[in-house]
Amino acid sequence: MFVGHYAAALAAKATEPKAPLWTYVASCQLIDIGWSVFIATGIEHGEADPSLPGSTLVLSDMPWTHSLPAVIVWSIAAGVLAGALLRVSTRAAVLIGAVVFSHWLLDLIVHRPDLQLFPSGPKLGFGLWNLPVPEQALEIGLLAVAGMAWTASRKTLGQSAWPAVMFVVFLVLLQIVVMFVPIAAGPLGAQTGLSALAAYIVVILAAMPLDGARTASQASA
To answer: Quick check: 119 and 29 in contact, CB under 8 A?
Structure first.
């Protein structure tokens, strides 16, 4: 799953709009941001198998980012740091932690069994990746519903709907691009990790200017 994770960010923004959008956007992919760094540095490992349907990733070793205990730690740390460093409200800090944790729950639906319950423990994954069309429909569907919720929230605050619409369209286009970018067969190396990291950073940067866009009538008030 890629853009489906951003549904959690948009839903959180609709629920608590006072926190910057980029904090939710970074939170929903924080686990994979860590994963991309750990793949690039050789701390975690995986490989690509082009014969697999849907995602070609075989994620054999990622205990520090995608095991359940690790995700709980990442989630709590993100919420605490958001409150301490960014001075967001307690409500927003809790939501940020929940958005981080949502990554594991959504991965559980689509991943093949590679999510450890605990280090060296059993691995879970319902394997929706093996059914590419339903998996893509799920991702886009989640994004569309959350995008509509964020749009409605913006309208309630007297803000323009266009930034929300454009951001969702941007994410869908990015999903299409990612679908057609091949990953070379074999072990995942530094290039794969850095490319993934760059994509996450681009989305965070794209989210940063979207909080303050208001309607013309509000701007003139």
So the answer is: no
pLDDT digits (tens, 9 = 90+) for 55-82: 999 999 999 999 999 999 999 999 999 9
> What pTM does this model have?
0.93
User: Is the residue at 221 inside a domain?
Assistant: no
- Eight-class DSSP state of 159: B
Closest of 1, 7, 2 to residue 167, by C-alpha: 7
Residue 127 lies in a domain: yes
Residue ranges with strand state E in 49-192: 57-61, 115-116, 123-124, 186-187
Residue-number span of the structural domain to which 34 is assigned:
3-206
Backbone angles phi, psi at 11, to 5 degrees: -65, -40
Domain count along the chain? 1
Q: What is the pLDDT of residues 161-203, one digit of tens each?
A: 999 999 999 999 999 998 888 888 999 999 999 999 999 999 9
Give the number of other CB atoms < 10 A from CB of residue 212: 10
Distance between CA 13 and CA 171 in Å, rounded? 16
Residues 6+ apart with CB under 8 A from 35: 44, 62, 65, 66, 193, 196
Residue 218: inside a domain: no
